[in-house]
Amino acid sequence: TMKNSVPQAASLLLEKLMLLVHVRPLLTGSGEETLPPAPGYYDTSCFKRGDLLEVPRTLFIHFGIYLGENRVAHLMPDILPTFTGDRRQIQQVVTNKRLILGVIARTASVRVDTVEDFAYGGSILVNHMDRLFEDQVLGNEEAARRAEKLVGATAYSLLWNNCEHFVTYCRYGAAVSLQTDKFCETVKMIIRDQRSVLASVLVGLASIVCLGLAPSTTLPTIFIPFFLWMAG
Description:
- This protein has helices at residues 2-17, 87-91, 96-105, 115-119, 140-149, 163-172, 178-192, 197-210, 219-231, and strands spanning 52-56, 61-68, 71-77, 107-114, 125-126, 152-155.
- It is an alpha+beta fold.
- The longest helix is centred in the N-terminal third of the chain and has 16 residues, at 2-17.
- It is globular.
- The two termini are 25 Å apart.
- It is found in: Cytoplasm, Perinuclear region; Endoplasmic reticulum membrane; Late endosome; Rough endoplasmic reticulum.
């Protein structure tokens, strides 16, 4: 029935659009991956072990826990751990193809990368979320140890187990995702108007734009992962 199809369609749309959360910018027309900055690009002298790092992306935010010595633990979707246990292969920078396939297969790993590879040229906010969890902040060393214990392959869910769930568990003791909650509230508003699935999809796309689509981002780049999903 239409009543059932609209929530189902909205749920599917939510999952597929949120795969954009980690996708790095693609070079327009080249088909090649962008390269991370050279070592030393970021001043890490102000970072402390256990700090929560945020990197605003086109649509969402990527999160990690600083471990010291220019190392960041962060959760990334990745299909490769499903096929190999070779740490040298897995440790290579995750390509967009590996990432998208990891989202679809719901597989990931908590990996340790340099600050440059983690941020990928984006600006970094330090402990910006502490103001929202001021009574729950664990010690920096406790946060770092929690992150280190979770390094390795893990299940992945765009809605229930993403990079924000990882860092909030490590630093605040509770796995939550505020950006996912905000997105779900937007989808609930869409579902309330059940006139058509098409209308829900259009409003959903508009909501994505309102949640932080960068004006400089081209539509082909935005919808590359979405079209890959549709083709699959």
